Amino acid sequence: QVQLVESGGGLVQAGGSLRLSCAASGRTFSTNAMGWFRQAPGNERRFVAAIRWSGSSTAYALSVKGRFTIARDNATNRVYLQMNGLKSEDTAVYYCASTSAHWDFAVQVGAYDYWGQGTQVTVSS
């Protein structure tokens, strides 16, 4: 069992920045990657970014590449999502997730085993 808790969401103006954090606990031994997904009202949950738990590989959705940066701190079992240049279309509930699947599957929502409760990010114009 892995527990994930997101924090750092809130209201920010367009063009602003926000950093999300995800604290992982429990049995994280089998975790291969951590990811961030988001879900806006009326839409499906979509991939945002992922990072290998061990290693340096990262992946980003095209819509956020160049604006968002995912990072991890293995010592504290945390993963971060630094969001810069926020746009109104970034408004969503952001979820942290972990997967034991191969890195090749890290962009797929179905590959993830555990999910946090989500944190709301609202970008105002």
* Helical residue percent band: under 10%
Summarize the helix and strand pattern as letters.
Answer: EEEEEEEEEEE
Question: Sheet with the most strands?
Answer: 7 strands, mixed
**Shape call:** globular
Task: Report on the architecture of this protein.
Helices cover 0% and strands 51% of the residues. The chain has strands spanning 2-7, 10-13, 18-26, 33-39, 46-52, 58-60, 68-73, 78-83, 92-99, 114-115, 119-124. The strands form 2 sheets. Strands 2, 4, 5, 6, 9, 10 and 11 form a 7-stranded mixed sheet that branches. A 4-stranded antiparallel sheet has the order 1-3-8-7, with no helix packed on it. The model has no long low-confidence stretch (mean pLDDT 96).
Topology:
Elements: E1 2-7, E2 10-13, E3 18-26, E4 33-39, E5 46-52, E6 58-60, E7 68-73, E8 78-83, E9 92-99, E10 114-115, E11 119-124
Parallel strand pairs: 2-11
Antiparallel strand pairs: 1-3, 3-8, 4-5, 4-9, 5-6, 7-8, 9-10, 9-11
Structural features:
four-stranded antiparallel β-sheet, 125 residues, 0% helix, 11 strands, mainly beta, seven-stranded mixed β-sheet
Quick summary:
The protein is mainly β and 125 residues long. Helix content is 0%, strand content 51%. The strands form two sheets. Strands 2, 4, 5, 6, 9, 10 and 11 form a seven-stranded mixed β-sheet that branches. The chain has a four-stranded antiparallel β-sheet with strand order 1-3-8-7, with no helix packed on it.
